[in-house]
């Protein structure tokens, strides 16, 4: 078999492809990347680790032989090498897929802070405490 990728990167990519996309063709993965549909946030996170570098694209683009002679990671890179702005596309898709979860992570603490501020603003005991401190301070400054 002809190999263009670093052996360790190729092996890890093969493991990712087998575990996450066992019943999916490379063209289906490519289509999902282009349309930004059909992928989960975990899929996207895994795919982002295996975006072809310029060097990998350059070396794999020179290959003119049959696809069957290439290992799966090289076939995958060959299938997706022409997708424009792949890294940015996957980051945007990851943001879209995780937006609601991230919003909840921010929304709940803000809701708690807002409630705490309302309680502080409407607290009669706190108003009395500040008034008492002001009177003590004024008395000490006057005497």
Tally of strands: 0
Query: In terms of per-residue confidence, which ranges show pLDDT below 50 for 5 or more consecutive residues?
Result: none
- Helix/strand/pairing class, anyone? mainly alpha
Based on CA inertia axes, which overall geometry fits? rod-shaped
Could you give the distance between the termini?
Answer: 94 Å
- Overall tally of structural domains: 2
Number of helices: 7
Summarize the structure.
With 143 residues, this protein is an all-alpha fold. It has seven helices and no strands. The chain is 73% helix and 0% strand.
What would your notes on this structure say?
By secondary structure, the chain is an all-alpha fold. The chain has 2 domains: 7-98, no CATH class; 100-142. 73% of the residues lie in helices and 0% in strands. The chain has 7 helices and no strands. The radius of gyration is 29 Å and the shape is rod-shaped.
Q: SSE layout and pairings?
A:
Layout: H1 7-20, H2 26-35, H3 41-48, H4 54-61, H5 72-80, H6 86-122, H7 124-142
Helix pairs in contact: 2-5, 3-6
Question: Any key phrases for this structure?
Answer:
143 residues; mainly alpha; 7 helices; 73% helix; coiled coil; FH2 domain-containing protein; actin binding; FH2_Formin_sf
């Amino acid at each position: 078999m002809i190999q263009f990728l670093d052996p360790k990167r190729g092996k890890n990519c093969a493991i990712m492809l087998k575990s996450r996309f066992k019943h999916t063709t490379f063209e289906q993965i490519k289509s999902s990347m282009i349309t930004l549909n059909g992928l989960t946030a975990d899929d996207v996170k895994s795919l982002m680790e295996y975006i072809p570098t310029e060097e990998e694209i350059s070396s794999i683009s020179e290959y003119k032989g049959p696809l069957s002679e290439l290992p799966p990671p090289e076939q995958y890179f060959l299938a997706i090498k022409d997708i424009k702005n792949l890294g940015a596309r996957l980051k945007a898709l990851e943001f879209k897929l995780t937006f609601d979860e991230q919003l909840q992570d921010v929304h709940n603490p803000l809701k708690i802070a807002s409630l705490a501020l309302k309680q502080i603003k409407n607290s009669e005991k706190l108003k009395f405490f500040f008034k008492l401190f002001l009177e003590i301070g004024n008395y000490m400054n006057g005497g």
